[in-house]
Amino acid sequence: MNLKHLLAISVTVYLLALQAASAAVTPVQANFGNVFPTLTDQRLEVFRSAADPPWYVTFNLLAQADVTLGVLALPPSNIGAVFDLTSIRVVRDDGSNVQFGTDTFSHNPFPEAVEQLVSVNDLPAGKYALEVSGSGTRINNFGEHLPDFAVHLQVVPEPEAYVFLLAGLSLGAYAFRRRTRS
């Protein structure tokens, strides 16, 4: 088997895994999408629906990593009240609990303030959601609903991910070098 066949098989397996991981937890209010375990700090503003809580912000973790999520209620609008955040937790695709959040924490890893924080170390690859509960409605002077809260997501890969990344880069460099010498 030559390098081209090996590369084609690897890409096919990766795409199949990516497709399998893309199904979402329901009900979905917002979606971070597929998150490869590289150092990220993503912010997502969430429009709360009229439905009763909880609301979910989903993400698909493609490899094991340390994950931290923070939630901040957005400031009050001209009409309506500030969103009153009561609880957050990380849940699996089936709704089972992974980790509860806390509003008493010593270190906020995000550049913006957060009211509640949840961290999970060594979270395996899979489909997850941040479950957010609270109340309040942000409405502007035109009667339009505004985003109620912002969610921050940070993913730090396990050390093994760096080894695989380095191995992949080395293999690519080796293949390129062999090709240019021919």
- Using only C-alpha atoms, the radius of gyration works out to 20 Å
**C-alpha termini separation:** 19 Å
User: How many alpha or pi helices?
Assistant: 2
Low-confidence stretches are: 11-27
Summarize the biggest pleated sheet. Answer: 5 strands, mixed
Q: What proportion strand? A: 35-45%
What is the element string, with H for helices and E for strands?
Answer: HEEEEEEEEEEEH
Summarize the structure.
The chain has 182 residues and is an alpha+beta fold. It has one domain: Jelly Rolls (Sandwich).
Describe what you observe in this structure.
With 182 residues, the protein is an alpha+beta fold. The chain has one domain (3-176): Jelly Rolls (Sandwich), CATH 2.60.120. Helices cover 23% and strands 40% of the residues. The protein has helices at 3-21, 159-181; strands spanning 30-35, 40-46, 55-61, 65-73, 79-80, 84-92, 97-100, 116-123, 126-135, 138-139, 149-157. A five-stranded mixed β-sheet has the order 1-3-9-6-7, with no helix packed on it. It starts with a helix and ends with a helix.
